[in-house]
Design a protein that fits this description.
Two copies of one chain form a homodimer.
Chain A: H1 7-14, H2 18-25, H3 35-48, H4 54-61, E1 66-70, H5 82-96, E2 100-104, H6 114-120, E3 126-130, H7 137-144, E4 149-152, E5 161-165, H8 167-180, E6 186-190, H9 197-212, E7 222-224, H10 229-241, E8 248-251, H11 254-266, E9 276-278, E10 295-297, H12 300-315, E11 322-326, E12 330-332
Parallel strand pairs in A: 1-2, 1-3, 3-4, 4-5, 5-11, 6-7, 6-8, 8-9
Antiparallel strand pairs in A: 10-12
Helix pairs in contact in A: 1-2, 1-3, 5-12, 6-7, 8-9, 10-11
The structure holds a DNA duplex (16 and 16 nucleotides).
Chain lengths: 354, 354
DNA sequence: TTGTAGGCGTTATCAA
DNA sequence: TTGATAACGCCTACAA
């Protein structure tokens, strides 16, 4: 292992002082150096393969040019490709601005100081938290410490800086689409327990659409999912078992929707003939299910970029606040909800007492 | 923003010197301190909420306790959940040993020094590279600099430290399974172009199985995929268009398999009645395709953990070398390849002009 | 236009 | 059992 190259070596090689080297390497505005020395120094730096020691830089500047990314439930990363795509977006924004990304997959912190300690360690300049639960204690602590924290979704904290998508509106649109196709008994499976605020917003959007169409909300037609394909499968089975005869499903995410489609198939229902399904996210495989899934496109990568940029802005002292409805979402119509529903609702007498 | 707490503050609070504080906080072996001072110091540290400044630690120790994770093609992270799950595994291993994970999604480095500079910056103690292409120039540079680099897969470099799974053997088993069901014309779609060594190993495993069963390898039954569902769809269509009448497919990954299944469905082939499909990876949704996918379980999370541990071992100076066949893989049999194939090849007339 | 000197917060060596 | 003191490599007033 060879000794590393420092500004000192460059200075010696170029025959100037360390200060001069620093001035040149950092392109200081006020300082005027002769072009000749500048060239000499740069040449020396290149020749020696100089790369600044980031620890020293961090120590003296007090900034690490690193953004921390917290996944409060790392296992969720394996649900589908939504969070990973978002991460790539965040990373891209960071890269473009010369920041790095430190991944911190904190296992639902028993330690309430988990996030705060990370901040205090000066290892990161800012923090992005993806989809925390409402009231997360560790998160509250960092927020209240004034450390720059950007939340995707919301933790329900009054002082939080957060960005979220128009979940409510998009969900309303999706549901309305089903209604416009003639469906009246539309089930909904939330993508997560309702302590996750976006899940709640989607539920509300769904209810708003029903209300606007003067359709009742049936408690039995709703089930809480838990992110995964399997939970979608289970929730759908549960709903089907209740004899509440939905003819359509608005699923809180695409993966859930796939699980639900499996349950529908097993129940002998054919999609979209007997049953319509709409998903959420438009993950890449959504176009390849049988039939292809109608869904809300949530632009994970772009959202990620936005998050990254906002986090850096926050670090730079800009105000962000709670922006709960940025980013419009599109409804992507595919075959899974068919044309006009033929079976215009039902409902046999047995349905009356849901 | 309050001033941060340093060892100095603790020293003052506890009425001792900074040195003593350091000794206690780092639990130095040789040094004996009175229990009383120790307690006083620890109490002061806790009271003040002390967290060491990692930059200072890094600077003086020369170690960052951080592992860098490089994804040579970040876009691939959005293919499916395999890489993300592996990342979570890596992260878990790091967390367990007090390391952090720095994610570096380098966009196919135009800059051949990209990795090396990261290493030189002292920001990381070691590097994990997931699935590089053979001969990656930037990668070769770090490897040759002796910096600890662990590769998942292989870059084909003689001095590389790498870990890979038994791709060849698993692929052979998968193919043999199809053969044992009576299939003789088995197509294969690689999950990636063959500059990716694991893709090559899977192809070889497939060919080995054919050979062992005295079945010929038909060039037309092979197509190169490019990770995604869509590429699987396209490759399958291409194969079907060639009039080469396969009755089964061994797909290089599950997502590809899903795309292929879509193409098969559109061609009027029913799975598993007319056509058998086997995938690779056993991603969580594989059990929920229609029909559920027979596949190779590749234990992404566990592999990730192993990678993380090996990378840290490498940092600690242990030898790793090129371990190209660690980790046994299982064949998970589901419905997508049915029972014994009824249509014992070849092709009924109706299939002739697909 | 260039150089000097001090400090960022730790750890580590050695002396008391 | 403790405490000075010197690095680690870089940045930045300020002085020359």
């Amino acid at each position: 292992m060879m000794r590393r190259v420092t500004t000192h070596d460059i200075a010696r090689e170029a025959g100037v002082s360390r200060t001069t080297v620093s001035h040149i390497l950092n392109n200081h505005p006020g300082i005027m150096l002769s072009l000749k020395t500048r060239k000499r120094v740069l040449a020396a730096a290149r020749k020696l393969g100089y790369v600044p020691n980031s620890a020293a830089q961090m120590l003296v500047t007090g900034r690490s040019r690193t953004i921390g990314l917290i996944l409060p439930r790392p296992d969720l990363i394996s649900v589908d490709v939504f969070v990973p795509m978002m991460m790539v977006g965040i990373n891209e924004a960071c890269r473009a601005r010369g920041y790095r990304l430190l991944m911190e997959a904190i296992q639902d912190p028993a330690d309430a100081d988990a996030y705060l300690d990370l901040a205090k360690s000066k290892r990161i300049d800012g923090l992005i938290v993806i989809n925390p639960r409402k009231g997360d204690a560790a998160l509250r602590k960092v927020i209240e410490s004034k450390f720059p924290v950007l939340i995707f979704g919301s933790a329900g904290h009054p002082q939080e800086n957060s960005i979220a998508t128009q979940d409510g509106e998009a969900s309303c649109r999706a549901t309305t689409h089903l209604i416009s196709l003639g469906h009246e008994r539309i089930a909904h499976i939330s993508y997560a327990p309702l302590v996750y605020l976006p899940a709640r917003k989607r539920l509300e959007g769904y209810r708003a659409a029903l209300k606007r169409a003067n359709l009742p909300f049936h408690r039995k037609l709703f089930a809480e999912g838990d992110f995964s394909c399997e939970s979608g499968y289970r929730a759908m089975r549960q709903i089907l078992a209740l004899n509440c005869y939905p003819t359509a499903l608005f699923a809180g995410n695409d993966t859930l929707a796939m699980g639900a489609m499996k349950a529908l198939g097993e129940a002998g229902l054919s999609i979209p003939k007997d049953f319509a399904v709409v998903g959420y996210d438009d993950i890449p495989t959504a176009a390849f299910t049988c039939p292809p899934l109608t869904t809300i496109r949530s632009h994970a990568f772009e959202q990620g970029k936005l998050l990254g940029e906002a986090a850096i802005a926050l670090v730079d002292g800009q105000e962000i606040g709670s922006q709960q409805d940025v980013l419009p979402l599109e409804l992507i119509i595919r075959a899974s909800c068919g044309g006009k529903a033929t079976r215009k609702n039902p409902a046999p007498a047995s349905l009356t007492n849901l």
